[in-house]
Write a structure and sequence with these properties.
Number of domains: 3
Number of strands: 22
Strand content: 15-25%
Largest sheet: 6 strands, antiparallel
Distance between the termini: 37 Å
Shape: elongated
Number of helices: 21
Radius of gyration: 36 Å
Structural class: alpha+beta
Strand order of the largest sheet: 11-14-8-4-20-19
């Protein structure tokens, strides 16, 4: 039977841990440090498994000191974690290329833990659970074999013995998981981070800001990553406008969000009330998004409200944020604005072509004019496109009279400018349109590709009314997006959603709420539980059955024929008054028997057993029956 040295087993486990660390952390370190680390790591594999070569340990210690110095030189108050991780990754590779003793393996494991924990500051995605479980299994197994290694470096193991040790080692993390879950829910926590020196904890996506230059929104729309999920009831697609920021001032090629001056505070919005809990992914902006007309936004940070139904914070939203929104579904905002306002502002040197087009679209009243402009852009000769956008110093003219194609920002900008030329106040609203509803989790999925701009026009005695001049083909595309997402993708996203809501966003407020529910349950035992007890009992039964089978498999494993026949043999010998010592071999054990007839029969059994056993082949059922027959013939 082939044997494997304890040193080789330990090396393989250590390299597997190192490889996983590289996989888990490579996205958060620079290409330079990653390259250096990988080169050293590959050289270490070559040295340990292919062709040995010697490296002066003093030289390696000198290089290690250099990297420790580099850590301190590169650390800033804004970013401590990144340089530390990069340097630790190189140090880990250096430890692998050394000639390794017990303390070196311990140092490898310690550095691996530091890198693993440090990387979670940058990313705590659901994939972390998979990496964590693998890491815990490998780490536990490596510690077990390191213990053997520290006692006897010449030990060898068969594959069967390695498998058996690995199998039983998994019990350690399995037992610790329930304890970890309990501590997760029980230990006090705060909504504010203890450390805020690592820069951005997650990669921030591009997004809307106070300034929107024509041609830049397409960069957002070409990104198909999720920007937020909104937990809420499902509503008609026509209401799926997610408000983010209003833009009032236009400089010819760029919109800005500015202070528009005093506005009548008697703002009125009537319609159905919709409640949402939104989980916003990190992005390079400060605005919160809410359905239609958000009237209230609350969360764990300072949130400021503007009179135009937009909400913002003073810090870049570079981390995941959970907040609650109360919205009113309405196409109209009843409000009075000053006659001379920024909503009539026009860029300097506006072309005569735009003025002529604007005058040609005038209707019998303001509302007719607005509808004429919307219809002209939406159902005319203009095409929606994210490519070959107008980029001249007069992009609106180029869109209207030359290329006649562009994305939503060109349609919305053109409508707002034409309305202002006709003396009708207008503004552009930036946010998202549409969304895919996930029935499994009861929430909408909004992607960056859903980014959209539309127009709000002010009509006397009515207020602000929403108009969307972008070609109707776009609306159909938004709605049909839901058909392009498979059920499997929605299922995977549901897992991500619940992971984010239950794990990432589990905070002190939820902890108190959970504690209060438990306390109330003890105070009022008669309270009715609105869950299906039958289903719950079945789930608990299945869970207990799985645990029982697991422990039964480990501790009450079915004995082999070899173990069974030896047990019968030892029992037979005990009846004769002899008990085998652990250090005794079978033949040595037989020497205790003085009765020649019995000794001859048992010697026949032992020789037959050893003949089968040392063939390196498992004893089968037929062999077991034959050996058992020999033992049955032995009479005391």
């Amino acid at each position: 039977m082939k044997k494997y040295s304890i040193e080789n087993v330990l090396k393989i486990l250590s390299y597997l841990i190192g490889f996983e660390i590289f996989l888990f952390s490579f996205r958060n370190v620079s290409f330079l440090y990653l390259s250096i680390s990988l080169i050293i790591f590959i050289l270490a594999i070559y040295k340990d498994f292919i062709k040995y070569f010697s490296i002066n340990r003093n030289l390696l210690n000198f290089i290690t000191i250099i990297f420790i110095v580099l850590i301190f030189m590169r650390i800033t108050l804004q970013d401590i974690i990144t340089p530390a991780l990069e340097s630790l990754l190189v140090l880990l590779s250096i430890k692998f290329i050394e000639d390794k003793e017990t303390r070196d393996y311990l140092q490898i494991f310690l550095i691996s833990i530091l890198i693993f924990v440090g990387t979670t500051i940058f990313s705590f995605e659901i994939s972390f659970i998979i990496y964590f479980l693998i890491f815990i299994f490998l780490f536990n197994l490596a510690i077990v074999f390191l213990t053997y290694f520290s006692q006897d470096k010449k030990l060898t193991f068969s594959l069967k013995e390695i498998t058996k040790i690995s199998y039983k080692t998994t019990l350690i993390p399995l037992i610790s998981i329930p304890i970890t879950i309990f501590l997760f829910f029980a230990l006090p926590r705060t909504p504010y981070p203890f450390f805020n020196f690592s820069g951005s904890t997650l990669t921030a996506r591009s997004g809307f800001s106070e300034n929107v230059k024509l041609g830049t929104v397409s960069n957002i729309q070409e990104d198909n990553s999720i920007i937020f999920r909104a937990n809420m009831e499902k509503i008609d697609d026509e209401h799926l406008y997610w408000r983010g920021i209003t833009l009032e001032y236009f400089e010819g090629d760029e919109w800005s969000d500015i202070d528009t001056g005093p506005i009548d505070k008697k703002i009125k919005v009537e319609g159905n009330t919709i409640y949402q809990t939104i989980y916003l992914e990190p992005y390079s902006g400060t605005y919160f998004f809410g359905l239609d007309k958000p009237v209230n936004v609350t969360g764990n940070r300072n949130i400021f409200k503007k009179d135009d139904f937009t909400f913002y914070t003073k810090d870049i939203l570079s981390n995941r944020v959970r907040y609650d929104v109360i919205s009113i579904l309405s196409d109209t905002i009843e409000e009075k604005i000053p006659q001379n306002s920024y909503y009539l502002q026009l860029p300097e040197n506006i072309s005569q072509d735009i003025k002529n087009l604007s005058l040609s679209l005038q209707g019998g009243n303001e509302l007719d004019t607005v509808k004429n402009v919307e219809n002209y852009l939406k159902n005319g000769d203009y095409r929606y496109s994210l490519k070959n956008l107008p980029t001249s110093n007069k992009p609106v003219d180029e869109f209207l009279f030359d290329k006649k194609q562009g994305n939503c920002e060109y349609f919305a900008t053109s409508m707002a400018i034409i309305l202002r030329v006709n003396g009708i106040p207008s503004r552009v609203v930036a946010g998202y349109r549409g969304g895919v509803y996930n029935d499994l989790g009861n929430y909408y999925i909004l992607r960056q590709s859903n980014a959209h701009l539309w127009v709000e026009a002010y009509i006397d005695n009515i207020g602000w009314i929403r108009f969307d001049p972008t070609t109707s083909l776009l609306s159909e595309e938004y709605i049909s997006n839901s058909k392009k997402i498979s059920k499997f993708s929605l299922f995977i996203d549901t897992i991500n959603y619940y992971y984010n809501t239950l794990i990432i966003n589990y905070d002190f407020e939820k902890q108190i709420s959970l504690f209060n529910k438990i306390r109330e349950g003890f105070k009022k035992p008669e309270i009715k539980i609105s869950i299906n007890l039958k289903k719950l009992s079945n789930l608990i039964l299945i869970f207990l059955l799985v645990i029982f089978l697991l422990f039964f498999r480990v501790f009450f494993k079915k004995r082999s024929y070899e173990e069974k026949i030896l047990a019968i043999f030892y029992k037979k010998m005990e009846k004769l008054g002899f008990k085998k010592k652990k250090s005794e071999g079978l033949e040595e054990f037989l020497q205790k028997i003085e009765n020649g007839k019995i000794k001859e029969s048992l010697t026949n059994f032992v020789f037959k057993f050893e003949e089968l056993y040392y063939k390196d082949k498992k004893i089968g059922k037929e062999d077991y029956i034959a050996l058992k027959r020999i033992l049955s013939e032995v009479k005391s």
